[in-house]
Amino acid sequence: MNAQQIHGFFSTLRAANPSPQTELEYSSVFELLAAVLLSAQATDVGVNKATRRLFPVANTPQKILALGEDGLSEYIRTIGLYRSKARHLIATCQILVEQHGGNVPRTREALEALPGVGRKTANVVLNVAFGEPTMAVDTHLFRLGNRTGLAPGKTPLAVEQGLLKRIPEEFLVDAHHWLILHGRYVCKARAPMCESCSVATFCDEGRRLQSRLARVGTVPKKPLGATGNHAKPQRLDRPRRAVAVAPRRVEAHQCAASGAGSGAEPGARQPALAPERRACAHRCLAGTPARRK
Fold first, then answer.
1. 51 and 154: one domain?
2. CB-based contacts of 98: which residues, under 8 Å, 6+ apart?
3. Is the distance from CB of 218 to CB of 238 less than 8 angstroms?
4. 102 and 137: one domain?
5. Which H helix or E strand runs over 53?
6. Does one domain contain both 111 and 167?
7. Is 225 part of a structural domain of the chain?
8. What is the pLDDT at residue 242?
9. Do residue 89 and residue 112 come from a single domain?
10. Beta-strand (E) ranges in 143-245?
11. Do 167 and 24 fall within a single domain?
12. What average pLDDT is seen over the chain?
């Protein structure tokens, strides 16, 4: 993707969703930090189900510490790896109370020093809570960066640096949300919806698909960039080649084992032979050894 295509890519996404928001539910910076920490290897939907029960009871570091690790585990046990996440969240709350007065720090270094908080989690908090132009590269952003040609890279850090370098400044603050929502609902991992994608004309993969369809003689039911349900390409009508199947033919022949003609009409059942004579060079019905039952 060149600079003009990148600008068109994000202009189209912005026109469709001018104010993108995270799908995690929170009402404070600490709730956001806790929700992002719990979302590792889990879906936002699953995290929201757990935090809807947790946050009304404990939504500050002090209240989380009062629950204890076992009490916290009971609220988040529906989330994968809930035991280790409960342990990390308890340790994080302890550090927030002792070193930051119960507040969430605003620097990357301080955030990444918290247990269970890595670069991606820190980027989400800095972007969503404090409005900084960071890029939290998860599985969706990593896939989009490589598939679209926006920022190819072999590691999440390489993709992150490429995105920050190539995305125009006017789109940087909201680019993370646009990309993650696009990857989650349109540019899916196993079944990308290229035929109904609004930015397919700017994407490297979308242009390759369009070229491939034109080359092999297929046309999509809807043009690239059209909205609506995903439609598979439709094959152009071509005449089917008729295949003639010859009927099976059985002929009378000389049996090598007996030295005499079978003397039977084609297709007729042959008389049983002795075991020592059940060897026919022509594999006829009479000479075929009986199968074991």
1. yes
2. none
3. no
4. yes
5. helix 44-54
6. yes
7. yes
8. 54
9. yes
10. 218-220, 233-235
11. yes
12. 80
Amino acid in position 160: E
76 shares its domain with 126: yes
Domain-located, residue 240? no
Structural domain boundaries, residue 277: 252-293
**Residue 217's pLDDT is what?**
61
Identify the residue whose tokens are 């979308």: 206
Q: What is the pTM of this model?
A: 0.69
Are the beta carbons of 172 and 133 closer than 8 angstroms? Answer: yes
Rounded Cα–Cα distance for residues 71 and 77 (Å): 10
Is the domain of 33 the same as that of 176?
Answer: yes
Tell me the catalytic residues: 120, 138
User: What pLDDT sits at residue 81?
Assistant: 87
**Is 241 a member of any domain?**
no
- How far is 59 from 39, CA to CA, in rounded Å? 16
Q: How many helices (H) and strands (E) does the chain have?
A: 11, 2
Alpha-carbon span 32 to 19, nearest angstrom: 18
User: What number is the average pLDDT over the span 86-96?
Assistant: 95
Average pLDDT (66-86) is 91
How big, in percent rounded to 5, are the helix, strand and coil portions of the chain?
50, 5, 50
Q: In this structure, what token pair is assigned to residue 177?
A: 């949300």
Selection from 38-47, 88-97, 200-209 with the highest mean pLDDT: 88-97
Dihedral sign from CA coordinates of 100, 106, 108, 114: positive
Is 118 in the same domain as 214?
A: no
- Mean pLDDT is lowest, of 109-118, 194-203, 233-242, for 233-242
Distances 251 to 9, 219, 261, 277 between C-alpha atoms, Å = 72, 52, 11, 20
Encoding tokens for residue 61?
A: 């570091």
Read off the pLDDT of residues 179-217 as tens digits, 9 standing for 90 and up: 999 999 999 988 888 888 999 889 888 888 877 777 766
Name the region of 107 (left: φ>0; alpha: ψ -120 to 50; beta: rest).
Answer: beta
Number of domains present in the structure of the chain: 3
| Mean pLDDT (whole number) for 70-82 | 91
Supply the CATH number for residue 86's domain. 1.10.340.30
